């Protein structure tokens, strides 16, 4: 098969995987990246660059072990040895959960959460549920509360408790309940692992959502010691073609034999005619570009893809004070403005301090925190989290702050495409609309996949686009030589 020349827009994981795979198939690639750095929504922040100090993931931070494509690349790139368990929200029983009684230790919160659930259920329904089902419902409801953004929580709240408990009707839950001290807890990880039908049984509005909740809290999650950005840097090293950072595509015109790109670099703009283009730009950004030659249906798809915001605020702390409080890792559902707090393991030289992901919010909650000025945002996070962890108020405890508001990051204008609240058929149709090529212009990125908001989705979409480009009929290959115009 004749080698093709492919220009890839975007050096996030989708663009880099596509470049790597296209070269393996004998094609020639070059990559245009608008940002000064590669990686896109994989963004590892090092508090002390060049020193073995703490780091924090401001973008993606964990990989479900079941995400086979992502795991495959980590193995191929020699990173498997650096994978370690990611302890997530609610996993460390010493961490906190926000309840009607204030912040309670997870191991002490069951009774309050069951009481809260019981008070929401109609009295006539209450007797239909066993104590184990109520315990399951209470801990699922708090996960929804912790993980779903405000607008989605509101949209699905009606009848949600009964719907969630309906998922485990007929399952003997007593095997998964146990006591910790005087409180009863339920092992949702074991329950979901033993009963995959719970996840498979989710239809309608809960289809993708419950899948993500199970991924988040019920399956084995992994982190990459040394930073997830090693994935993109290792990929970059394997690609022979050039990756041009700081080259922002500002316009795109699809012709019958070429795709013309308008590219801004520094103060200059040039136009380039390309044989094939693979566009991995999030549609939240793409719809702001000058686009010509795309059909109406595609323009509608680009215009309609919804994105959620995410905001992260991380602290460089003098020491991992939470360990003295008995917390060995995982996360707290802190509620309020800050929502979720994670305690990553200490990496590097412990004398250089520790990273704390003080706040992780998505959707409306992220908009709210993200809309504050940076000093106000940081002050709000320190104020709220200081009430849970007063150690933060000690002089010299917080050495530095790093934050990222993905909704106002020009290169993404959002954190992830949203398919929650849609059933399986609607999700598949939307994916196909987003991924549909236009002549010699192809599309990839998490928004074009079956796993939006995951690295796995970006990888799946890249592999799919590579197959499409590779199979593009040789008979149609009569393109002009690629040329650069203007400066
Ligand atoms: C806060 C947050 C937490 C997440 N957590 C997880 C997690 O724990 N696990 C997980 O698997 N996934 C997670 N994700 C999702 C995961 O990060 C993404 O799905 C994945 O990285 C997307 O890759 P991509 O290549 O599709 O897009 P991107 O990474 O966004 O890449 C697109 C690239 O295009 C570039 N670009 C944009 N506009 C232009 C232009 N005009 N010209 C040239 N280049 C341009 C961008 O700079 C970017 O580099 C998270 C995402 C966020 C934001």
From TrEMBL:
TM regions (residue ranges): none
Domain named Amine oxidase: residues: 13-469
Coiled-coil residue windows: none
GO MF term list: L-amino-acid oxidase activity
Superkingdom of source: Bacteria
InterPro entries xref list: Amino_oxidase, FAD/NAD-bd_sf, Flavin_monoamine_oxidase
Alphabetical GO biological process terms: amino acid catabolic process
Protein's name in the database: FAD-dependent oxidoreductase
Species annotation: Kitasatospora acidiphila
Organism lineage string: Bacteria, Bacillati, Actinomycetota, Actinomycetes, Kitasatosporales
């Amino acid at each position: 098969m004749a080698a093709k020349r492919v220009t890839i827009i975007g050096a996030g994981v989708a663009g880099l995987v596509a470049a790597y795979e296209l070269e393996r198939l004998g094609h020639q690639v070059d990559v245009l990246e608008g940002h000064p750095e590669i990686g896109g929504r994989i963004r590892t922040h090092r508090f002390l660059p060049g020193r073995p100090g703490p780091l924090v993931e401001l973008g993606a931070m964990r990989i479900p072990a079941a995400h086979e494509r992502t795991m495959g690349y980590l193995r191929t790139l020699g990173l498997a040895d650096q994978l370690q368990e990611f302890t997530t929200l609610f996993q460390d029983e010493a961490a906190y959960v926000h309840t009607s009684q204030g912040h309670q230790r997870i191991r002490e919160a069951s009774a309050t959460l069951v009481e809260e659930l019981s008070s929401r259920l109609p009295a006539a329904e209450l007797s239909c549920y066993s104590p184990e089902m109520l315990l399951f419902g209470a801990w699922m409801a708090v996960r929804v509360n912790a993980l779903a953004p405000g607008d989605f929580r509101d949209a699905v709240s009606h009848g949600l408790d009964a719907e969630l408990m309906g998922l485990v009707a007929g399952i003997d839950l007593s095997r998964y309940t146990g006591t910790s001290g005087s409180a009863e807890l339920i092992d949702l990880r074991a329950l979901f692992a033993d009963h995959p039908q719970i996840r498979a049984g989710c239809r309608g509005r809960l289809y993708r959502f419950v899948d993500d909740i199970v991924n988040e809290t019920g399956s084995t999650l992994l982190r990459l010691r040394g930073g997830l950005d090693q994935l993109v840097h290792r990929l970059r090293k394997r690609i022979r073609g050039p990756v041009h950072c700081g080259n922002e595509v500002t316009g795109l015109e699809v012709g019958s034999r070429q795709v013309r790109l308008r590219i801004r670099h520094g103060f200059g703009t040039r136009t380039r005619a390309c044989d094939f283009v693979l566009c991995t730009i999030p549609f939240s950004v793409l719809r702001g570009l000058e686009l010509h030659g795309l059909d109406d249906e595609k323009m509608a798809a680009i215009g309609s893809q919804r994105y959620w915001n995410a905001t992260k605020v991380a602290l460089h702390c003098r020491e991992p004070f939470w360990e003295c409080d008995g917390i060995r890792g995982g996360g707290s559902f802190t509620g309020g403005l800050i929502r979720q707090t994670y305690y990553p393991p200490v990496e590097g030289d412990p004398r250089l301090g520790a990273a704390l992901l003080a706040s992780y919010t998505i959707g409306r909650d992220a908009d709210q925190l993200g809309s504050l000025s940076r000093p106000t945002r940081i002050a709000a996070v320190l104020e709220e989290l200081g009430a849970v962890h007063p150690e933060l108020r000690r002089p010299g405890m917080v050495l530095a702050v790093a934050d990222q508001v993905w909704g106002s990051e020009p290169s993404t204008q959002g954190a992830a495409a949203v398919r929650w609240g849609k059933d399986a058929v609607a999700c598949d149709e939307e994916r196909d609309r987003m991924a549909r090529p236009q002549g010699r212009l192809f599309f990839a990125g998490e928004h074009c996949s079956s796993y939006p908001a995951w690295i796995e989705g970006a990888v799946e979409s890249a592999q799919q686009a590579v197959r499409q480009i590779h199979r593009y009929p040789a008979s149609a290959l009569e393109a002009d030589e690629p040329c650069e115009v203007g400066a």
